[in-house]
Amino acid sequence: MNITNSVVLVTSAGSQLGSTLALHFASLGATLILCDKDTRQLADAYHLCCEISDNVYQFPIPDHSIESISALFQYIEQEIHRSPDVLINALTVEAMPNIFDHAASDAFTQSLSLMAATLFTFGQATAEKMRKEKKNGVIVNVISHNDYQDLSGIDNATSMIAGFTQSWAKQLTPFNIRVGGVVPNLEHESTHWAEIRDELIRNTEYIVCNDYFSGRVMAA
């Protein structure tokens, strides 16, 4: 896929991961749509991208419900008159609480449920658009961690990413829609965030550009 001619939708674009991915794809000439529930962080990422590209749009999304995502796609159609060619599902994983910490268990369970719901709703809505318009689209699920001194929780998220990526690829390959995943490598816990970030970006770009990559997860 030629990134320069592509419309790229980045979720959680105000996060550290989402904003760095957005900046990279803006530098490659893609038309970007940034969305996030955090309006302040979204605005910061939007203004940074606007410094290097004129083809950047932002959409504050109140939640990840089907109604909110439908409103997002309506906005994209109105502003760009094209649906996304690429979806980058950017997710940030939280540390897993101690197994004996009963107070934190509900919050962690809700966090995992929200992550799964976010992946699925954005993936489903984008895939339906791509299939309807017969696009050779790409969906990339990318995760990072808030605290690289404590990577607990990454293994659970990695399993989730792998499951979604493999099952979606099987369902979407007949429609020429590719699916890939990018996760931090657990073997390199001492690696600095900047190095991990660069690897996440490179691997995401590789998946988007490589027309033969689908159904697999890359470790950064």
Automatic annotation (TrEMBL):
It comes from the Bacteria. The keyword tRNA-binding does not apply. Pfam families: adh_short. Gene3D superfamilies: NAD(P)-binding Rossmann-like Domain (3.40.50.720). The keyword Oxidoreductase applies. SUPFAM superfamilies: NAD(P)-binding Rossmann-fold domains (SSF51735). Keywords: Oxidoreductase. One of its GO terms (molecular function) is oxidoreductase activity. InterPro entries: NAD(P)-bd_dom_sf (IPR036291), SDR_fam (IPR002347). Belongs to the short-chain dehydrogenases/reductases (SDR) family. This is Short-chain dehydrogenase. It comes from Vibrio nereis.
